[in-house]
Amino acid sequence: MNTKDLVFRMLAHKFNISYMPVVVTDGMVELMKDFYSREEAWLLVLMPLMPVSAKTAARLQFKNPAKVERMLLDMVNRGLLIEFTDDGVQKFQMAPFIPGVVEMTLMKGEDTPESRQYAKKMHDLLEDSSSRVLDKIEAMDSSFARVIPVNQGLSHDNQTLHYEDVRSIIDGATRFAITHCHCRTQKFLADEKVCDAPRDVCMSLDFAADFLLRAGIGQEVDQKTMLEKLDLAEEHNLVHMTDNSRSGFTFVCNCCGCCCGILTATTKLGRKTPVIKSSYIAEWDSKICTDCGKCSRVCQINALTQVQNVTIFSEERCLGCGECIPVCPEKALRLVPRDDWEEPEETYGHMVADMMARRIKSGTLFRGKKLPGQEYMARMINKRYT
Fold it and tell me: Which of 153, 292, 341, 357: disulfide with 279, CB 3.0–4.6 Å?
């Protein structure tokens, strides 16, 4: 091992101590070297995992507090670190690698030589490690995100809960930010084939919006603009995703099956439907279907396909997004409640704590049976993210 790369490899391994697993590869270490200076990498390696003030981080490492604060704020502005205020004290914490650092570095949508270089390296990293990361996520049987059906896909018979209605989620938020979709931006900058879906439809809410606006990453908008962006996403048949919780929402992604890092696990890598499905599933009546193919043209996950002009439906792949329902002229498709669906965790903090517990139980983090202080961890996360 190159000793000059040691601190960057240590930092890459530290990113794995999270609710979302990573696979440390040479490609990830190269990205660490692009993102951080050697001094910044050592600062983060030696920082505690829990949030700390700049003064505390400096004291732990015998550094000048003013210099440490400048370093931390510079990393915040580059999308490499999370910053927030806790009881009047400014604190800093490492963001997860995915979702987090990977997305925030391109969410400004800037087309620069540096961002193009990063996008190409990210492409190589995903090609090298995606399957192994998915193995870990499937072992956890959990996800940070879930699909929300489009409103047009739900009939009056469906009793929709607040957290299953994307417009209700937006109505319940107080601050909003729009950024560029990392996945489609990364494909564009890496000169890969990219779809014509809009890129500036990535939505952040409340705590996440506050942070992205302070960091200069997001553009502040009002609720009316958010709903207009949602309409635009639905015009392109994009799949809505949000936090896998019942409250404390931080984002709404609008995803395509050709670029999205989550959906391509199925469309390109042939994995079974990831644990992001909604509480519904499409029900298809083959007797009245005329095989017009309109549903297969809007399905982002290839759950509906045409083989020799005959419609084929795969329940296993279906996300329950509802994009196919309004385009069917014969009303041969409808959304029905999914039998095997599990209710999301109550809050964002409980979701993160549950995922950490599942990582431990699955053996993808370290061997153990229980996450100590899981309820305490959930309360502390909720305190910061609300």
Answer: 341
Tell me if residue 50 falls in helix, strand or coil: coil
What's the pTM?
0.85
Specify the higher pLDDT residue, 180 or 340: 180
Cα–Cα distance, 371 to 355 (Å, whole number): 10
87 and 151 inside one domain? no
Please tell me whether residue 85 adopts helix, strand or coil conformation: strand
Tokens of 45: 């390696």
- Cα 214 to Cα 20: distance, rounded to the nearest angstrom: 25
User: Angle between the 65-77 and 38-46 helix axes, to the nearest 10 degrees?
Assistant: 100
Helix (H, G, I), strand (E, B) or coil at 199: coil
Residue among 106, 252, 255, 118 at smallest CA distance from 182: 106
Number of domains in the chain: 3
Nearest CA to 323 out of 239, 199, 230, 197 is that of 239
> Are the beta carbons of 345 and 247 closer than 8 angstroms?
no
Burial class (CB in 10 A: 0-12, 13-18, 19+), 174: exposed
Q: Do 81 and 40 have their domain in common?
A: yes
Q: Is residue 346 part of a domain?
A: no
The CA angle 188-23-132, to the nearest 5 degrees, is: 85
* Least confident stretch, 280-294, 316-330, 337-351: 337-351
Answer positive or negative: Cα dihedral of 132, 135, 136, 142: positive
- CA 11 to chain CA centroid, nearest Å: 21
Q: Are 114 and 135 in contact (CB under 8 A)?
A: no
Beta pairing partners, 313: 304
Q: Which domain holds residue 237?
A: 129-337
